[in-house]
Amino acid sequence: MQVVNKYTKIDIVPTHTFNNGVYTRGVTLPKDSIILGEIHKYATINVVSKGKILVVDVTSGEEIYIEAPYVFTSNPGVQKLAYVLEECIWSNIIVTDLTDIQEIEDKYLIKKEVQNVIHYDRSSSRNSK
Q: Cβ contacts of residue 66 below 8 Å, gap of 6+?
């Protein structure tokens, strides 16, 4: 039997914007991606400016369907698992005077050793021989 993996690791490259003590980290999330979000140490403003996405709070199991435009605040320590229904643009807004990305990540994120993004390839299928 041969199994074809329908999931492919993809890299999401964030954009970084700084202005007067505000840092915005933005990502474009491809349709059919499964995203495991970062865990923030502090409350974080989230902005979905494009797309549709289903988000689950990993701890509580609470599900929310988001359709842009949508703005909400995540509590500290929350990790979100998401399925991208339609390409999304998602941004986090953090108040900080820091401008070094590594310093910001060290101060505001809880580090983990988990792959964050996979993409579901609908064209692949499981074959048996």
A: 48, 52, 53, 54, 55
